[in-house]
Records
---
Amino acid sequence: MTATIIDGKAFAARLRGRIAEEVARVKAAGVTPGLAVVLVGDDPASAVYVRNKGRQTAEVGMESFEHRLPDDTAEADLLELIARLNTDPKVHGILCQLPLPAHIQTDRVLAAIDVAKDVDGFHVSNVGLLSTGQKALVPCTPLGCLMMLRAQLGSLAGLEAVVIGRSNIVGKPMAQLLLGDSATVTVAHSRTRDLGEVVRRADIVVAAVGRPRMVPGDWIKPGATVIDVGINRAAGEAGATRLVGDCDFESCAAVAGAITPVPGGVGPMTIACLLANTLTACCRAHGLAEPDGLAA
Ligand code: NAD
């Protein structure tokens, strides 16, 4: 069997197109969705993410507000900025780029963001809403994975899903979303015994570990759908490095029914889902109809 390649780049482009149409609808009702992104320090990878987020926000017709603060910003000053953004009517989504410098307590900062503007879905109240099956803002990466799974498989009800990884930003919310769609969910992690046996029973595998090519093809049930969240640098040709996922792409694609590549799979969906969350937050804030299929 050769797997269908799930093209995350094309999927994300279609999603952004849909969001742009919905933004135009919301603007016609007199509201412009706005996303504020806060970057503390000069981590080069974070700076690239923030730039991309700002560009894509503007491209779909939303307002983008960027706040760049120096590395030695006091926690109190960051909290003050967040308090201002919380009450700013032009801002519907607030994202504080992680990681924050070591002298700032991430939990305190995330807790300070208004739950209704928490477009990263990291606030404990959104985590609680998601896990109790209520309307929440959902972390962007697992939301993107869910959208791709629904598009690929239709109903997920009754399917065996194995999520490898239990982080707060990917593994745990992914498991909650799959449960919300009535899959039978197993969360595997670094202490799981006989991981291969666990993964072999899955109709859906979501790998979110951060270990290059750790999932071999002989762990995959024939026909399963494989979502590879991992982004790892591995040695390429002639001393160069290249990006690889947590799954060994070639051997998994030979067995799976469908698989996301790395790069070009889950990655491009994450920012598109951030825009989707901002639009959702804006619609909820103004009592406007929420577009179908953009939230969990
Ligand atoms: P994390 O380090 O917070 O969590 C990794 C998880 O993997 C842990 O729960 C751990 O228990 C589990 N694990 C570690 N070793 C294992 C092993 N040998 N067997 C089974 N499980 C094991 O990482 P994260 O933030 O969840 O990210 C995971 C990967 O996804 C990383 O490669 C990251 O770069 C990538 N990622 C991609 C996106 C995207 O937009 N595509 C977004 C977030 C994270």
---
Amino acid sequence: MYDYLVVGAGLYGAVFAHEARKKGKKVLVVDKRPHIAGNVYTEKLEGIHVHKYGAHIFHTNNEQVWNYVTQFAKFNRFTNSPVANYKGELYSLPFNMYTFHKMWGVITPEEAQKKIEEQKKQAGITNPGNLEEQAISLVGTDIYEKLIKGYTEKQWGRACKDLPSFIIKRLPVRFTFDNNYFNALYQGIPVGGYTRLVENLLDGIEVRLNTDYLEDKAALDAMADRVIYTGPIDAYFDYRLGYLEYRSVRFENEVLDQENFQGNAAVNYTDRETPWTRIIEHKWFEFGRDEEGNTLPKTVISREYSAEWKPGDEPYYPVNDEKNESLYQAYKALAEKESRVIFGGRLGEYRYYDMDAVIASALSMCKQELTS
Ligand code: FAD
Ligand code: UDP
């Protein structure tokens, strides 16, 4: 009945479905959740688009991806500038001259670099081999202790010494006064929310929600020639080689009868003792106004608590350490034998992908799959 069955209505699945339909293919999309858009799903509450599965800021250096995604939504000019709260002391993020000035009172980039060099030398790091050493060699011990150690250990549930250094390299370190969290040419939030963006991608495509592919695999497989699977790769194989590890996140959402709770979209709590990692105040992704430009009397906040994933939880962050990477490679070898199925996306490829990378990966797969 269908050329393609797409499992998962997140960005990867929606981009593929859109492109396949454009090529005249018949596509069915299924998702086990009661809504489309996967983890970028937004829901309107008190006039505010609430990011239900964690704050999502679109940012990219990939012009092709930017031109692609802006066909489906207009983006606002939001620039992410989280504030770090360490036991009541506030610091600018990412690590830049404002952070260094607040931490050490330094005025010039040269003074800041000197301070970091001193601390790196004192710690005796020459060739950083893990996240702790990488962080200290980038920003020194003071910033590591106050702004990285507690947050990272809460976020990943592991000691910084046991984590790969690439995780901290996601964050820019700048010797300029620039609080933009991302080094990206293009950045913003889709006006009308991410759900609308995905709705536009899926326009004209049949979508069945509340449908778990793995629970009804044989029947669904029989309906299509090929399958695009964007769920967890280990779940597809019924965990037969063991469980890939994820970090999960619990969101505690609150509607507050006040206009402004924290004055910023994101405040990170970087000490070890505060149980949450960060608080998101969603209205500031849209400058505190609804689509008609009205200010909003209430606000919605989400506290994020990081947790180890266990079967039944939502998998959020793949833990790309050596142990999990080699297990993933073993699953990938099994996946390659499934000739009718393509595994894609954050869960299907077990990759710590940002949205732009997921879109790029889906577009490159489309090029291969839909032109052959
Ligand atoms: P998903 O969005 O996870 O979609 C997979 C879909 O498959 C889901 O809807 C799921 O329900 C469905 N599914 C799974 N198994 C089955 C099954 N058996 N049957 C049917 N359906 C199934 N990226 C950024 O660029 N900027 C950010 O600020 C950012 N913030 C993030 C914050 C958090 C907390 C997290 C976790 C991620 C963040 N990301 C961010 C990354 C971004 O969420 C992902 O890159 C993107 O959403 C992945 O899209 P996807 O389609 O691969 O996966
Ligand atoms: N990080 C940190 N302190 C912060 C923010 C981030 O130590 O205030 C570290 C943490 O290890 C995190 C990594 O930097 O996992 C990458 O941060 P990013 O914001 O990119 O993580 P995301 O939530 O987008 O995955």
